[in-house]
Amino acid sequence: MGGDSPPVKRRRMDTLDVAIALFYGDEDKHFTAQEFLWALKAYRIVTKSEHLPFTIQKPHSYRGHYGQLAFETVQGLQPIEDAIQVVQSAIGKTFHGYKGGTYVMLDDTHVWFARYGDTGVPVTMTTINAMSTIQPAPQPRAKEEKNSE
User: Fold this and answer.
1) DSSP 8-state code for residue 124
2) Can you list the alpha helix ranges (DSSP code H) found in the chain?
3) What domain count does the chain have?
4) Is 112 inside any structural domain?
5) Which domain holds residue 94?
6) Which of 16, 30, 43, 48 is most exposed, with minimal Cβ within 10 Å?
7) CB atoms inside a 10 Å sphere around CB 44
8) Dihedral angle at the C-alpha atoms of 15, 21, 22, 26, nearest 10 degrees?
9) Is residue 128, in this structure, part of any structural domain at all?
10) pTM, to two decimals
């Protein structure tokens, strides 16, 4: 009697658990491609939004470290699923370095926000949050036609 206690069942951490830990964890941690995907999923869960308030596009070899991955960003809403697809499309792909060489981007490759040929900022929760607070430029209103009688 009194021998062994039953084993404690531990639930395996899934992507959601990791994503939320990343979202609320070290805000200055430089994300890998996989962590960026998790952060995008966490962003959707935590903000309850289906859109990023900015758009990521044009994956390429980062100018500062050719073996690392960069994405250009522009103003405008982007469905989070589209952003996830952009990141996923770059994983496993071979890119050419700015001054030569070829580099395969893997899920453990660090990611940056930068235009092609420029240095930029590392993708962290701090940069994602900062970019999320930038308001888009106001759009000019269409001139209203005067009603003539």
Assistant:
1) -
2) 15-24, 33-47, 80-90, 125-133
3) 1
4) yes
5) 15-133
6) 48
7) 19
8) -160
9) yes
10) 0.74
